[in-house]
Specification:
With 89 residues, the chain is mostly helical. It is built from 2 helices and no strands. Helix content is 79%, strand content 0%. Helix 1 packs antiparallel against helix 2.
Length: 89
């Protein structure tokens, strides 16, 4: 019983297009957003460390407001990547 197996290419194309859309419009922008968050958070930590070393403070604290401020980096980088994807670039 030899036969020919014909793969269902329509299902494979739908899976590939779904993954491509998922990657293009969700994963890649999310990764860019994390990069922006890391840049902002690192800059805040460097400034706080420098001020801690220069001034006469006895403590070094990272507040919740610093994390919230770093979310500006996440949102800005995420939106830039989303708009680039919609533009087609």
């Amino acid at each position: 019983m030899k036969g020919v197996i014909i793969p269902n290419l329509a299902i494979n194309n739908r899976k590939n297009s779904f993954f491509r859309l998922f990657s293009t419009y969700l994963l890649v922008p999310f990764r860019s957003g994390l990069f922006g968050f890391a840049i902002f958070f690192t800059a805040l930590l460097l400034v706080k460390t420098f001020l801690f070393l220069v001034s006469n403070q006895n403590y070094f604290i990272v507040n919740v407001s610093d994390v919230v401020l770093s979310l500006i980096g996440f949102v800005s980088f995420y939106l830039v990547r989303i708009f680039q994807n919609f533009k087609g670039g």
